[in-house]
Specification:
By secondary structure, this protein is mainly beta. The protein is 10% helix and 41% strand.
């Protein structure tokens, strides 16, 4: 979710399928990170959230936050932009936290009715996030998303559960 997205590179995987379409207006707002594949830009992060708001019809403001080193740690924020990939029905975004680098943010599973959970990854399978509208996710939904990620070629054995036992 932070700047390290730009380091993704293609592997020998079949094309990563994304959801049919995303209603950006419904996707906006706060998401809590439930789990992630380890990455250098979130090392030592607790209480991770992402906040999305509209800039214009093809650009979204991204504010990622985490507490460093503990649930009581200092709040760290990264601000960036996400650009809708043309022809993707809003399911593929390119996220930029510093110019000129952009990384893939592909929505590969989504609660299509209420937008309560999302599975987001990169086509390289290097990055993966399980997101929820609340800081806790029902275990059956989590298990379903892990299975979907595994079926799409992600190494779910490396998933890191995010500590969300945080004070607002």
């Amino acid at each position: 979710m932070f700047g390290g997205l730009v380091a993704a590179c293609s592997g020998n995987y079949p094309p990563l399928e994304v959801v049919d379409k995303v209603d950006i207006e419904k996707y906006l707002g706060r998401w809590y990170e439930i789990a992630r594949l380890p990455n250098s830009f979130e090392e030592g992060c607790f209480c991770v959230t992402a906040e999305y708001s509209v800039i214009d019809s093809t650009t979204i403001r991204v504010t990622n936050s985490c507490k460093e080193d503990s649930t009581l740690g200092e709040l760290n924020q990264a601000n960036g932009k996400a650009f809708v990939v043309e022809g993707s029905n809003n399911a593929k975004l390119r996220v930029q936290f510093f110019w000129p680098f952009r990384g893939d943010y592909w929505i590969i599973e989504l609660d299509k009715e209420n937008y309560l959970y999302a599975l987001v990854g990169s086509p390289s399978r290097e990055y993966l996030w399980i997101l929820c509208r609340t800081s806790k996710m029902d275990q059956s939904i989590y298990n379903m998303l892990v299975e979907k990620a595994k079926a799409k070629g992600f190494d779910v054995s490396k998933l890191h559960l995010t500590n969300q036992e945080c004070e607002e």
